[in-house]
UniProtKB/TrEMBL annotation:
Family, as annotated: Belongs to the ABC-3 integral membrane protein family.
Keywords assigned by UniProt, alphabetized: Cell inner membrane, Cell membrane, Ion transport, Membrane, Transmembrane, Transmembrane helix, Transport, Zinc, Zinc transport
Annotated PANTHER family: ABC-TRANSPORTER METAL-BINDING PROTEIN, HIGH-AFFINITY ZINC UPTAKE SYSTEM MEMBRANE PROTEIN ZNUB
Subcellular locations according to the entry: Cell inner membrane; Cell membrane
Membrane topology, record value: Multi-pass membrane protein
Function: Involved in the high-affinity zinc uptake transport system.
Any one GO BP annotation for this protein: zinc ion transport
Bilayer-spanning residue ranges: 43-72, 84-106, 126-144, 214-232, 238-256
Organism in which the protein naturally occurs: Pseudomonas flexibilis
InterPro entries the UniProt entry points to: ABC_BtuC-like (IPR037294), ABC_TroCD (IPR001626)
Name of the molecule in the record: High-affinity zinc uptake system membrane protein ZnuB
One Pfam family of this chain: ABC-3
Any one GO CC term of the record: ATP-binding cassette (ABC) transporter complex
Length: 260
C-alpha cells in the first residue's frame, strides 16, 4: 500500500473512531450549526498559519479552540438566537478564510482543503491526528457520564452539583479539536458530515447511549474505508467519497427494522 494512502486510511480511521461518541452528543444536543461554524473557521486558521509561517495544523487547532470559547461566551450574552448567530458566523468565517487566502502570495490546493485530499496527508499530519484523537478519547472517557447528565437535563445536573458550564465548554473544545484535525481528511465543507451522519444512522438501532456511540464509530470506520477505497480505485475526491459512503450507510439503516 502506498504510504500516502496508508497515512490517509490510518488518519481517517482514528478520526472516525473518536467522531462516533462526539457525533452522538452533536445529534443529541442539536449542535450541527456549531460544528458547521467551526469547520468553516478552519480555513481561516489555515490562512493565518501560512501568513504567520507556523504549522497550519497548529494554527487551525488554536483558532478553532479560541472560536469555541468565544461562541460559548456569545451564546450566553447576545440577544440573537443561537442558530441565527451561528448561521451568520459560519459563512462569515468561510468568507474571511477565502479572502485571506487570496491575499497571500502562497499557492495552495484550495479544493483539497475544501473537500479533502489523499495526497495532503503527510507523516506529520498523521501524527497530529493520531495524537489528537487519542487525547480526545482519554478526555472523553471520564467526561462521558457527566456529559450525558447535562444532555438529559441540565437543570437537574446543576442541582446535583455538576459543573454544567465547564462540561459544556469541555464538549465544545473536544468537538473543535476533532474538526481541526479532520480538515485534510474530509475537507472544510464536509467535516460535520463525519460527525452527524454515522451518529444519526446508529441512533435508529441503539437502545443505550453507549450502543449509539459505538455504532456511530463502527459506521464511521466503514464509511472512511469505503470512501477511501472509492477514491483510490475510481479517482474520486476523498472527502466527498467518505460522505457519500456514510450517507449510503444511513439509507441502509432505514432498510433494517428499527429496534425499540
Amino acid at each position: 500500500m502506498a504510504d500516502f494512502l496508508l497515512h490517509a486510511l490510518l488518519a481517517g480511521l482514528a478520526l472516525a473512531l473518536v467522531a462516533g461518541p462526539l457525533g452522538s452528543f452533536v445529534v443529541w444536543r442539536r449542535m450541527a450549526y456549531f460544528g458547521e461554524t467551526l469547520s468553516h473557521a478552519a480555513l481561516l486558521g489555515l490562512a493565518l498559519g501560512l501568513w504567520l509561517a507556523i504549522s497550519p495544523t497548529l494554527a487551525i487547532i488554536a483558532l478553532c479552540l479560541l472560536l469555541a470559547l468565544a461562541l460559548l461566551g456569545l451564546q450566553g450574552r447576545q440577544a440573537l438566537a443561537s442558530d441565527t448567530l451561528l448561521g451568520m458566523l459560519a459563512p462569515t468565517m468561510l468568507a474571511l478564510g477565502l479572502v485571506t487566502m487570496s491575499l497571500l502570495e502562497v499557492r495552495v490546493d484550495l479544493l483539497g482543503y475544501l473537500f479533502g485530499d489523499l495526497l495532503a496527508i503527510s507523516r506529520e499530519d498523521l501524527y497530529w491526528v493520531l495524537g489528537g484523537s487519542a487525547l480526545v478519547l482519554l478526555l472523553l472517557l471520564p467526561l462521558w457520564r457527566p456529559l450525558l447528565a447535562i444532555t438529559v437535563h441540565e437543570e437537574l445536573a446543576r442541582v446535583e452539583g455538576l459543573p454544567v458550564a465547564g462540561l459544556r465548554l469541555a464538549l465544545m473544545l473536544l468537538i473543535a479539536l476533532v474538526i481541526a484535525l479532520a480538515m485534510k481528511i474530509v475537507g472544510v465543507l464536509l467535516i460535520t458530515s463525519l460527525l452527524i451522519i454515522p451518529a444519526a444512522a446508529a441512533q435508529r438501532h441503539a437502545r443505550t447511549p453507549e450502543q449509539m456511540a459505538v455504532g456511530a464509530s463502527l459506521l464511521g470506520l466503514l464509511a472512511v474505508s469505503a470512501g477511501l477505497s472509492l477514491s483510490w480505485f475510481q479517482d474520486t475526491p476523498a472527502g466527498p467519497s467518505i460522505v457519500v459512503s456514510a450517507a449510503a450507510l444511513f439509507l441502509l439503516s432505514f432498510a433494517l427494522p428499527r429496534r425499540r
